[in-house]
Amino acid sequence: PKPNSRGTSSKKCGPDSSDIRRRTDLLQGRPRARLQEEKAKSFYQKADESAAMSRLAPLLALLTGDPEGGLRAPPPRPPSVITVVPASPYAETAEQRATVLRATRAAANASAAAAATVEALFEAPELRADLAAHCPSIAAIPSAELVRRFAEEAAAAELLSNFQAAPSVHGGAAGSMSLDLLETNGYWPSQWELLFGSATVDDDVSSASRAADDSPEDASKTTTTTTTCNSSYEIGNAAETTLYGFPEFRGADPCFPARFAEAVPRPLYTAVNTMRVDVGNPTFGDVSLVWRRRGFASEAAIVAFADTGLVEFMCNPALEAFVTPRGIAQPNCSVAYVYEADDGAPEGGAVSATPTAGAQTMGTVDGDALHLVPMADAFHNSSAIRWLATHACRLLSEAPWGAERPLFSNETLGYWEAVVAKPAYAVPHVRFVVATFATLFGDDAYGARVRDLCVRNGWVLAWADGAAHQGAAQVLTADVARPMARRFVDPATLPVTSLGPNATAVKVFDDHWRRAAAARADRGEPLGAAWAVLAYADLAAALPVATATLWPLRARDACPDLDDCVGTVGAPDATNRTCLCYAGTVAESDRAAAS
Questions:
Q1: I need a surface site. Which of 100, 283, 454, 545 has the fewest CB within 10 A?
Q2: Strand pairing of 223-227 and 80-84?
Q3: Interior CA angle at 424 toward 421 and 429, to 5°?
Q4: What is the average pLDDT across 389-407?
């Protein structure tokens, strides 16, 4: 089933009517006692290997407990033939600009109107008690001031996309974004573009002609293949068309694009790191690209109140991949959908799911997003994630980073999602890179390649602890709250920064790298969280103070430029820290005056 032009979906095949009724009861807040038991019955092996191409594969695997993705096979349907061509980069399209305009045109008014509602949430006695117990540094701040600060800091939060450096080694999805693709292309293709081949740039094929009609200059460069809709495609497509408003695919099977030109307008997915998690968005991999706003996200980003893939496969009963998750309870789906049974159908018949107006009122990355706060808080609170209390403390705490509010791993799923409808060229649009220490430090294959990539492109590389996140499967299995607040600067990338080269840091780093590489060779397997905790602490203690603790940039740090600075460095406390910026950074106010 596919959303129709009015954004509704009706079930016409798949589960019987009693199953549909059970789903509807669940979504309306009446979970059944046998919820967990039915999880085992609800999923089959993924329909085909191409399912792994989806950005959703790690999240599906995580929530279903099935390393293969737990995908439920859709009703049988004939495969479709698509033309395979190298999916090279392209220019921003008019269709992308129109989608962003439609999705965000109400953001400013909605955000302003929500200020009083958010202030009331901060006034709630239970939230005030939570802050007093877990975030005393901001517990006495008046609610109106908390609202102002929240909006200001959310507009400065990192926008990032994670991927697995070595899919075959560390558990990433085959065919998804990888270090190989980034090195080859310098470009992040969408999940739909990846259907059309290796995503490597071919100088003999004109990207301009391909964007227009999919016709490369050399026809011998193309082949055809067959692709069949699976649940992962269905979820991603439903989120993009029903919630974000991207144009639907027009092929014989509208589950996926039949032509490369249809894949082009679809977006890059990012997370808004309002929880200031050191490794970014760990469910999706151990390398995080932190994106710039200027010339990229500020112009073309659309912000949703939650991960829209999670919303679709946990809240839309019309999709085959509707899941009973593990690790978090069923969220409050009434925030996202209005459910209505078809009274004309047989007993327990078809159910339509229509997105709420709030779910389709998106935000922007530059400050028009306060209306997403009550949406996210209501959506997640039924799943025992204290959303507003957690995000307010992680974002606004005046104590050292992460000290007041450690996170359980499953809480990292409560982020705002932002999609960017613009070609994601890495060199001009990546602000800096974060690598996960636990999986990549001392790895002479993939970890060393991440370092080399950053040095070649002039990007700052930060190493984050990540001991609790060695693959998506561990995000929901860790039952200990951690600060998730440790980064240091790779000294090989210091020459491009305001700090400049540091020979002492290079020597210390190289010595610890050799020791870690030797330990990996001896073990012949991942070294585990216990090793990572000790090794990270040992290295951080040995590094010069100026590079040993890198904190995420905050609006209140008053650094010269949000895009050209990457954080603050200095002693591990909340005072006397210095902005770490790229060398030659010009203050944003001076740039505006010069223009």
A1: 545
A2: antiparallel
A3: 115
A4: 95
